[in-house]
Specification:
Strand content: 15-25%
Distance between the termini: 29 Å
Bound molecules: iron/sulfur cluster
Order of helices and strands: EEEHHHEEH
Number of domains: 1
Amino acid sequence: MRGEQGECVGDRVAVIYVGQIVEQGSLRDIVRSPAHPYAKGLLASTIHGAKRGQRLETIPGTPPSLGEKPHNCSFAPRCAMTQPRCLEQLPAKVEVGPGRAARCVLAEQAFAR
Ligand code: SF4
């Protein structure tokens, strides 16, 4: 994955939003089933995420300033899945599979032990 804020090193990918890794894992796993809403949005906005003849999706809103140090999920203002908890604290980094991790309340709820 390359693009807005995705960085590709070998087959490992780190999806970065506002200077923070929000998901990491193998390129294959993330493209097949992204765990973080921002990674999902990025993939939906590429030609790989759209069917021929359809408009590419966009992620509504704009990223916050890089100078801001959010105390909560910095993607929350743009996320369709935002919950009250997302606004209260920075989501923890959670293992979502072998060699995969995401920083999202949804991942915490689904995978935290
Ligand atoms: S922590 Fe909440 S607001 Fe942030 S990406 Fe996950 S669901 Fe969306």
